[in-house]
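Ticket opened by: R.M.
Priority: normal
Category: complex prediction / small molecule

The reporter submitted a protein together with zinc ion and asked that the result be attached to this ticket for the collaborator who will pick it up next week. Submitted input follows.
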Amino acid sequence: MLNRGGRGVVISFHSLEDRIVKNSFRRLVQGCTCPKGLPYCVCGNMPLLRVLTGKPLMAGEAEVEANPRARSARLRAAERL
Ligand SMILES: [Zn+2]
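Result attached by the on-call engineer:
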């Protein structure tokens, strides 16, 4: 749903949720879904995203102090290409 240049942010509160986000981002960053070993790309899929967060961002000490439920939150962001 993002416009080109638009940024999407996902916050997850569980490591398995974060894994889904991470893997989904990776799939959209990669674009091409051709099986390995093809001499050239036949799927024509282009990368859709650029990931802005290498590691997920986590709440700092002060924020966790004020809001303990932020402790497990992980934020990942990506930009639509
Ligand atoms: Zn391909």
